[in-house]
Amino acid sequence: MKIARKCFVLCLIFSIFVLSAPINIKYVYAGKYERPALPQDEDTQQTVIVKVNKPMTESEAKQLLQSYPDLKLRYHFQNIFNGFSVMGPSSQIKKLAEKTSIENIYPSYTYKLDISPYPQISNGTFNSINYIGTSKIRHLTDKNGNHLTGKGIKVGIIDTGIDYTHPDLRKSYVKGYDFVDNDHDPMETVDMGPNNTFHGTHVAGVIAANGKMTGVAPEAEIYAYRALGPGGFGTTEMIIAAVEQAIKDRVDVLNLSLGTSINGPDLPTSLALDKAVENGIVAVTSNGNSGPDLWTVGSPGTSHRAISVGASTPEIQIPYVDYYGQQFRLSPLTGSKPWNLDRSYMIVAGGLGREKDYQDIDVNGKIVLLKRGKLIFSDKVRTAEKYGAKAVIIYNNEDKAVLGMLDGEMNLPVAFLSKKDGEHLLKLMETSNTPAKIVNKTEQDRLADFSSRGPVTFSWEIKPDVVAPGVAIESTVPGGYKPLAGTSMSAPHVAGASAILKQANPDWTPEQIKAVLMSTSKPLLNEANQLYQSFEQGAGRIQMEEALRTETIIQPAALQYGKVKGKTFEETKKMITVENVSDHAIRCTFSTPLRSDTIAWDLPSPFYLKPKEKKQITIGIEVKNQHKKNEIYNGFIDMHSGSQTIHIPYLYVVAEPDYPRIMQFSFEKSEREDLYKYETYLPGGADEFGIALFDSDTYRFIDYLDWEKNVRRGLITKTIKQEKDLQKGTYIAVAFAKKSGKEDFIEQLIEIQ
Fold this sequence. Notes:
This protein is of the alpha/beta class and about 750 residues long. Residues about 1-40 and about 120-125 have low confidence and may be disordered.
């Protein structure tokens, strides 16, 4: 085992402490006072990314750092932006930031994979890559007569590494680099028990498996960059260094199935992917697994130029519990027995599933409904089995979707239910006493609940750009195969499709490939048979056959009008380029949207395009004053190009929409006894920002640790001094931000010692 990997685990443990999950307690804030200037802790060690304002060689960077002897140069960047990363005491980093040649300094965030194993599909034969049309295009050839298999296309994968000894990946793997251990061996983390990884190998299999399993582009060349180490943790610095290397290796397509929860367009990883696209690389990234709420897309899924991918369902069997004439969708947990219950069973409420919750109820031979909390899922199931339950349904205690799993194979069917459905089912059970029946339904092309939604804060962009299958995706892992769920599984479908498009059209730019994938996607419908919002699905689920047969390319493929004021006759226009890539003339027309009291469209008259001709057109919107403030307006405009119908997603916001005013709060003790360091992200800045301290038992307000007015947008990193004598113990630190009359906050438990 490499020594660096051991060291990384120690860093991992520290990161978990600093970024521990916040609690949620509402409180009304009161009182503010001005504070004196706060000293910096000179001994705090930091790793930061430094952006300089002009090209700088590595030797010039070293020369610049000679005045700061305790700063260690780690990586030099010259492709994604001009700069480098350093590690050293915060006092010297602060002095370095004062140099006129320094444009910006970014902290190195911790990235953590968010995936879940998924139960095997009942028929065991489904291949998700065929659902995007892979099987329909295998007979097609490129200009040299080669079948479309990704032959000759370089695909970079920034992830946990790759098991290049896997029999399905040996042919595809070319080379790689390990940015965790700084060597040329990008093997997955092994021999570290629960910290072993398999994610990168799974991603690689979806893209280019070539053996027992076949990927989307089985003859593509895989370049593996290990930027996530034991347990799936990595840093901004490692990811940016990997993007830099991918540019040097001149890969054609780059896949990043990773991200943070910070919704902002200006984080270094998002900027790095923008730069990769400028260098001719089709950059593909997962959209995140924090859905189904709005504004949950995270960096680098917020990249303007990259293809951000959400998760849809392939054709799968989903169990529903039918009770009192109403049906509730279940999500089976990995380790559960199949939900093949052939008759009706009574269903009873078992509280939190603790031993004491079973004292006054009889669950023998029945389905038990439990609330999430207190115990892990597996312990709830084992206790239910002990008391004779036939099956277990666990409903959520929060609105956010959960990618859950059991810690081993169970003897009972086990499934997860949303908070809304669980509470509704519980109320029905209180008013009726009828048996429940399990009904299996075939579902396809639905958005996964966990798939993050947009739009992007500040830029108000539509994200994701497209969706692809991300549920029950079976692919390669070290030693075999495993089904997983997550947008991490969706992105490689799109990366593989991009490799196929690049092989078929080697002269196409990344912008053209992105536009074609979007313009030929299938907009998806929800359970109510209505279109999902454009900021939920982008242009829709990708379709490879349609993408390869397209006759028209529209750039950009989405109309993003940004922020408008909602005044009478306010008109906003966007220019797009329509290109005829066929060998015959085509006629282009627009369908007039339904009449609206809030918006009027200014659409071009019908026009013709000669073969290979391009034309710039303008599409305008006239926003009327009937608009509600703080709202998101979106939908699709249909353009008919020959026999092809292109659905163009659009979005604009009125005034200051209802996005989260604060994201990603972490608060930690510094090495000096009286100093603390915090880090937060303000997507739109703040009229008022502060950190308040409360008693963890009584929620009594104690003090303001820091506060400020008219704060700039973006990342805030600061060291503060504890100025009030506080007793040792546990407190609640509450970071809050107020902007345009709306206030949001995040809370974290902290220890005062």
